[in-house]
Amino acid sequence: MAAFTIPLWADLLAVGIGSLQGAMFAAQFRDRRLDLLGVAIIGIATGFGGGLIRDLLLNEVPKALQSNWYLPVATGAALVGMLLERLFSRLNHVITVLDALTIGLFGAIGATAAQAAGLPPIPAIFVGVVAAVGGSILRDLLLGMPIALMHVGSLYAVAALVGATSLVVLDGFGVGIPIAAAVCVALTFTVRILAVLFHWSLPEQRRLERIPRMRIVRRRPRPDA
Q: What gap in Å lies between CA 102 and CA 124, rounded to an integer?
């Protein structure tokens, strides 16, 4: 099975959007007093995170280190996101749309790369989800924050899971990779956008406050008639 590939410019655009968002997110925390290098590192980690984890899981040389374009694009996008944070905040809806598209692309690339490496369907889906959301996880870890993907109201991972699962299932039925990848991107994009518009979320974690005790009723022997 050949891995789904996209043009270099589209991959760089996805990395740039991720880096831009990571830097914008970090710039909101004035109390952290991050310097230019700190913002650049967080932006690069956000843009590269999913791809790096994907390639490490597949025991491959990271794609971001095989070209001279990735690091400059990620660094430049991170610095622009920090300096123009107020301006880009007004374009939040556009950034959300582009981000949803990026999640779908990274998920499709990750899932097909895993299958091309010979992984079974379920691990391939897992790699696709990690590739889609890995950047956000690294961003939150670097900022010392609870991982946003685990908060109520975030369907990042769910959207990626739906998309990656659809790709693997369609491939199992013999559907061509371009069509399966397009469906993956479309479903991921749709679920993510609908979750934002209608505030969809998974149920909050629950626990049993009181475990009911089983009562053992002993029957008294009946007197002889």
A: 18
